[in-house]
């Protein structure tokens, strides 16, 4: 173990995922006219691009739009594990949704994993795809029984798995469950190949094009912030958090979670495999190859609800300490964080956005397992549009009703929305009495301007940026995220830059500017 008292490893000043820095991506124009298409897809991540690929190969005219650069959202900030082992989920699914649904969940994710492998082979995609064993481990006595219960769930569902009492890592372990022959890859190298296939099949991709609304009807229209429309037969809302709710009340049925990643050049060799702890704070590990040789170990975890952690840099520091204690640190070239959405029953919402809108489709709530869940979603959405049967329809449909899970889902619904109400009230009552003149360069806090709550950030050149802290989604008060230099909403996960621009929805409008007072 390295002597962390005598060494300093500096975190990168700006968060940047390794994936985006190591894979040149094509750029696409901004939409600047009204257009017509068969399927309009909002969101340029794994759902949007995989759906577009599948449909364009069948002669369907597709148009993909993204509010920023493609693959710069959750897909570009993943740890990119391709696995059907999503923590200790199968015992939970049996208890809440029944054996049939739990088995379907496993099969859907396994089929998605196999689809990725087939596509990589078919297109000879150089995306660092490798087969890895996936482990869930614990050092907490309270989780030993849960791991044993998970093995019993595996047996009931016909899942191949093993209980082991040690890991091939310099990490203590009281018990673990392993699922063999899972996978990992470089997600952007994989998906950038799909963009080529999409455009070669006649599909269109537009970046810096923000969707703001949908006009429903037999031929729905996607409306953009710049005033243009995309007329189509079907819309896929694949924008991570649905930008369009369609009276589906998704903001009451989802909660956003943030987690953190350090990419580390380690002193000790990494033996391979993918690992995640059963208990909190989460510790997740896998490796990535730099230039096909030198490994980077990805240390992830430190989950919390968006906007509900006051010192987000502390999460990076905790991961840094863990990396040093286990593998030793040579260098930390990358750090980043990500945000994902979790549904009431842990199963994503994929299908018709509401029962009365069959040509408006949605995919959301992948609970940090988007590589397989997102691929499974795209396969299902393509089948719906092509009028093909898909045996996972009832599993994923957003309008599902499962009597066994209703009580738990209702309790979760009440808990999540009570949490929203608490943060809404607390934020409105806060009056700090602090003025912006206390801020040094690269510092921010909530301040009072003329007796009203405001967010203040002084950048590295000394310029002060003042914004109204009222989230433009539903009026909650945002909090400062010092790890990413953003204002984050604790209610529904909207995120804004220090100058107020939308970084992540569901908010569509920026924070209002606040007039600077004389300093």
Chain-wise SSE layout:
Layout lengths: L17 H4 L13 E2 L2 E4 L3 H11 L5 E4 L15 E2 L7 H8 L1 H24 L7 E9 L2 H17 L4 E3 L10 E10 L2 H14 L3 E3 L4 E5 L5 E4 L4 E3 L2 E4 L16 E13 L7 E4 L5 E8 L3 E12 L7 H14 L2 E15 L5 E4 L7 E5 L5 H16 L7 H4 L6 H27 L13 E7 L2 E7 L5 E5 L10 E3 L4 E3 L6 E3 L4 E3 L15
Parallel strand pairs: 1-11, 2-3, 2-12, 3-8, 5-14, 12-19
Antiparallel strand pairs: 4-7, 5-7, 6-7, 9-10, 10-11, 13-16, 13-17, 14-15, 15-16, 18-19, 20-21, 21-22, 23-24, 24-25, 25-26
Helix pairs in contact: 2-6, 2-8, 3-4, 3-5, 4-8
Describe the structure.
With 519 residues, this protein is an alpha+beta fold. Among the domains are: 24-77 and 188-252 and 346-404, 3-Layer(bba) Sandwich (FAD/NAD(P)-binding domain); 405-519, Rieske Iron-sulfur Protein (3-layer Sandwich), CATH 2.102.10. Helix content is 27%, strand content 28%. The chain has 10 helices and 26 strands. It has helices at residues 18-21, 46-56, 90-97, 99-122, 141-157, 187-200, 313-326, 370-385, 393-396, 403-429, and strands spanning 35-36, 39-42, 62-65, 81-82, 130-138, 162-164, 175-184, 204-206, 211-215, 221-224, 229-231, 234-237, 254-266, 274-277, 283-290, 294-305, 329-343, 349-352, 360-364, 443-449, 452-458, 464-468, 479-481, 486-488, 495-497, 502-504. The strands form 5 sheets. Strands 4, 5, 6, 7, 13, 14, 15, 16 and 17 form a 9-stranded mixed sheet that branches. A hairpin with a 2-residue loop joins strand 20 and strand 21 (452-458). Helix 2 packs parallel to helix 8. The longest helix has 27 residues, at 403-429. The radius of gyration is 23 Å and the shape is globular. The termini are far apart.
